[in-house]
Amino acid sequence: MQQLSFLTHLHKLITMTFTLGTKLVTINGDEYELSTVNNLTRVEINNRLHYIGDQILNLAMKQNELVKMRDLLDTQHEDVDLYEEMFGETK
What we know:
This protein has two domains: about 1-40, no CATH class; about 40-90. It is about 60% helix and about 20% strand. The chain is built from three helices and two strands. The chain has helices spanning about 1-15, 40-75, 80-85; strands at about 20-25, 30-35. A two-stranded antiparallel sheet has the order 1-2. Strand 1 and strand 2 (about 30-35) form a beta hairpin.
């Protein structure tokens, strides 16, 4: 089920359409008409990219920690044949 969800999401990204437009934005008390894509200004897009970058960095650090934990278990049990331990026979 997880695989289908990923593929559905990927398809949406590939077939995504973009809509150009404008938006009135107040900056320092003055109103400006800024270009937008899907109603997002360049600043809003950059802010979202920054947030996503932070999330990716946090996930990468968590992934690295989990890999190190797994490696520690692997080195602790490298002389144990898991298959033999589970099934009581050699391959």
